[in-house]
C-alpha cells in the first residue's frame, strides 16, 4: 500500500479589501486513493487551484483536515507541483532546473546530474539539457516541468492545468506522453483541467466541483480500461459522459455567474 489522501470537510477563504471574507472552498470532502489518477473540473474561479495549494502545503485550511494516510514509498517529498506557466528558473539550464529539488535536499551533484538526465530522457528532451528555458518551446518547457516534478520522487503529483498554455497539437502529444509516464511511475495524481475530453482520456475518476464556496458536486468513475489510448474517444460511453459532464459544468458555471451578478460572492 502507498499513500492515499483524505480530505475531510476542508474550508478556505480569503479576506476582501472591504473587510468581508470571500469563501472559496466550503466543507469539501473526498478521498484520493493511492496510485489513482484524479482529474478535477469546475467553473472558472471555483477554487480548483486553491484546493491544489492546500494539498501541496502552500496554504492552510481554515477548517477541516487533509490527511496523507499509508506507508511512504517514495524517497522525496509528499507532493510536487507542475504549474501551468512552467515556473522554470530562467538563468538555470534545463538540467539544473530538473535537479533543483534534489539540490535543495542536499543530494550530491553527480547523483543530481544522473537523475536529471534520466528524467529528461524519459520526457524526450535530453538533447536540450544545457539550454536555458527561453530557448525551448512551450511544450518542451512543460516537459521539463514534469521531469522536474518527477525527479524529486514525490508520493503525489499535483498538476495545475499544465497543458492549458500550449497549442492543440502539443497538448495532444503531452497528454499521450503523460499517460505513458504515469503507467511507468504510477504516482498518485491530482490534475486540474477545464477540458472534459482531457479528463476522460487521463483520469481514473473525475471530481466535479461546484461554484464558490466549492464543494464536490459529483464523482464519476471513468470506465475505460488501461493502458488507455485515444481510441476511447470512439467509445459511445465517451460521448455520453462528455454530455453529462458538460451539463454539470454548464449548470455550475451558470450558478456562479448568477451569484456574481447578484453580488452574493
Automatic annotation (TrEMBL):
This is ABC transporter ATP-binding protein. InterPro entries: AAA+_ATPase, ABC_transporter-like_ATP-bd, ABC_transporter-like_CS, ABC_transporter_ATP-bind, P-loop_NTPase. Keywords: ATP-binding, Nucleotide-binding, Transport. Residues 5-236 form the ABC transporter domain. PANTHER family: ALIPHATIC SULFONATES IMPORT ATP-BINDING PROTEIN SSUB, TAURINE IMPORT ATP-BINDING PROTEIN-RELATED. SMART domains: AAA (SM00382). GO terms for molecular function: ATP binding. Pfam families: ABC_tran.
Amino acid at each position: 500500500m502507498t499513500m492515499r489522501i483524505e480530505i475531510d470537510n476542508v474550508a478556505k477563504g480569503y479576506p476582501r479589501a472591504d473587510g468581508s471574507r470571500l469563501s472559496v472552498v466550503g466543507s469539501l470532502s473526498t478521498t484520493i486513493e493511492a496510485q489513482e489518477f484524479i482529474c478535477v473540473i469546475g467553473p472558472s474561479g471555483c477554487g480548483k487551484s486553491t484546493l491544489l495549494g492546500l494539498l501541496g502545503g502552500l496554504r492552510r485550511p481554515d477548517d477541516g483536515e487533509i490527511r496523507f494516510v499509508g506507508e511512504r514509498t517514495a524517497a522525496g517529498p509528499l507532493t510536487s507541483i507542475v504549474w501551468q506557466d512552467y515556473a522554470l528558473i530562467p538563468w538555470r539550464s534545463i538540467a539544473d532546473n530538473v535537479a533543483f529539488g534534489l539540490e535543495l535536499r542536499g543530494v550530491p551533484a553527480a547523483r543530481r546530474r544522473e537523475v536529471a538526465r534520466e528524467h529528461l530522457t524519459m520526457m524526450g528532451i535530453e538533447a536540450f539539457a544545457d539550454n536555458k528555458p527561453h530557448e525551448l518551446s512551450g511544450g518542451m518547457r512543460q516537459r521539463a516541468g514534469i521531469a522536474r516534478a518527477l525527479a524529486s520522487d514525490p508520493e503525489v503529483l499535483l498538476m495545475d492545468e499544465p497543458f492549458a498554455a500550449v497549442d492543440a497539437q502539443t497538448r495532444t502529444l503531452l497528454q499521450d506522453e503523460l499517460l505513458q509516464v504515469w503507467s511507468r511511475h504510477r504516482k498518485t495524481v491530482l490534475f486540474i483541467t477545464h477540458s472534459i475530453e482531457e479528463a476522460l482520456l487521463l483520469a481514473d475518476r473525475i471530481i466535479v466541483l461546484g461554484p464558490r464556496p466549492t464543494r464536490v458536486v459529483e464523482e464519476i468513475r471513468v470506465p475505460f480500461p488501461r493502458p488507455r489510448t485515444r481510441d476511447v474517444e470512439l467509445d459511445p460511453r465517451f460521448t455520453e459522459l462528455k454530455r453529462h459532464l458538460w451539463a454539470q459544468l454548464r449548470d455550475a458555471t451558470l450558478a456562479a455567474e448568477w451569484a456574481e451578478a447578484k453580488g452574493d460572492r
